[in-house]
Fold:
Amino acid sequence: MTKNYDQPIPENTSKNTHNVVSELLAEEAEVKTVLDVPCGAGAFTKRMLDRGLKVVSVDYEDLMQAPRGGLMLADMNATLPFAEGVFDAVVCIDGIEHIERPFDFIGECHRVTRKGGVLVISTPNLSALRSRWRWLMTGFHQGEKIPLDESRRSPLQHVSLVSFPDLRFRLHTRGFRVTAVRTNRVKAVNWLYAPLLPLTYLMTRWVFYKEGRRLPSYAQNREILRQCFSTPILFGETLIVKAVRL
Structure:
């Protein structure tokens, strides 16, 4: 079937996510080659190509609409079909929550990224106050508001939703270090949960102190506390994290 490249390419993610991810990459002067996985229809691929970067696009099926997008079919749960250290950056926009082996995927991202390169991940923000309140009331986070359909397994299901501390743990134990935490936007409705902030902060700080004050990781936990109470995490719609490959 002939593809129509004249139509706008759908981003298939939350509003402004591509803009923020693009800004995070623009901060890295040495980034020339980018792995876009999963690439979807190729909206982010096209954006990077238009900036003159070399892009390799990967997805489990061919939905590519970018006219200059080179596509490779691959499974994010499996070994990525690339040599070690061949990319300056890996971008994973709203993909990691859909796969069954997110730890292994981050390990593969580490393998194919050069030392000093970056990994940028976006995923639903489970750590937002709004999402925490939904969990308290319903047992389901903002990223998956009702139970998954057990009668079918779809690649679009959110089978690996993750909070910021858990995502940081996966990155830091796979050879990355988080250098930036952003969000796509703060919706007006999210500010309605601001009255929960003082009690949430006091309770979290007390638990961190009570349970972790004698642990070697206490200094690490204080850093995580500061990050968790930043505006992007407390009120952001989508969590966007940049990490450098050590």
